[in-house]
Amino acid sequence: MTTATPHPDVLLDHRGRRKPRINMPLAYEQGRLGLAFHEAGHAVLAMAYGLRVDTSEIIAWTESDGSWAVSGNTAWHARDFHAWRLAAMCAAGELAQVNYLMAYGLWTPGRAAACAAEHDREQAIDILAPHGFRIGREYVPAGGKSWGMVRGMARRKIGHLWREIRTVAHAMDEVGVLTGDEIAEMTRLVNPVLDEAVAA
Q1: How many CB atoms lie within 10 A of CB 69?
Q2: What would the DSSP string read from start to end of 64-125?
C-alpha cells in the first residue's frame, strides 16, 4: 500500500465523475483482496467474451486520517462486441466481489451491499444505448433487458470461471497490476489482438 493518494483521474468513472466512496467493514487485507476479485471478475469475463484486456489493477493508499482506501480499474478494448455479454462483463465485478465474501466466510448483508458498483451499471447503459440496446435499472424495457437479467447472465458465467477469477484475484492482490497477457497466461484464456480497437 502507498501513502500517496492517487491522481484524481484514477478515481473517476467513465463520465469523469468521482467514483463513490463506500465504507467496507473489513480489515485492509480482506478489503484489498475483495477489490482484486472485483477487477478479476471484469477482466476474466472480458477475455472470455472476446474483449482485449490491457491491464487490471488495484490501487490502495492511506488517507491523511490513517484510514485505508482501495480502488481498481480494468482497461479493455473491443472492435466488435456482443451487447449483452459486454453488459455482463460490466456486472461481473460486483458479483465476483460478493462471491468472494461468501466463499471466504465474510458475507454479511452490509458487506454485500457495500460491493454495489453503480458506475459499472451506468457504464454498460451508456455504452449500449447509442447502439440501440436498452438496459432498465429496475424494469425490462421493450426489446431490452433489466439490470437484474444482466446480473443473472454474469452470475452464471462467473460460476463457470470461478477458478480463473480466483487465480487472477490472488495474483493481482500480490502484485497490484496485471497485464491482459499475464492474465491470459495464468488462465489459458485468449487475450485477442484487435486491429483498430476502440477504447472503452
Answers
A1: 17
A2: TTS-EEEEEEEEEEESS--HHHHHHHHHHHHHHHHHHHHHTT---HHHHHHT--HHHHHHHH
pTM for the whole structure: 0.90
Angle of helix 28-48 versus helix 180-187 axis, rounded to 10: 80
In sign, the C-alpha dihedral spanning 38, 105, 185, 83 is negative
Residues 99-135 pLDDT 10s: 999 999 999 999 999 998 899 999 999 999 999 999 9
Residue 28 and residue 62 in contact, taking contact as beta carbons nearer than 8 Å: no
H or E segment at 135?
Answer: strand 135-136
Question: 1, 121, 117, 107: which is closest to 59 by C-alpha?
Answer: 1
Q: Is the dihedral of CA 172, 174, 176, 179 positive or negative?
A: negative
Among 63, 64, 89, 68, smallest CA distance to 24 is for 68
Distance CA 50, CA 161 (A): 14
What lies within 8 Å, CB to CB, of 56 at 6+ separation is 39, 40, 42, 43, 72, 73, 74, 75, 168, 172, 177, 178, 180, 183
Residue 181 and residue 147: Cα distance in Å, rounded? Answer: 30
For residue 8, give the amino acid letter. P
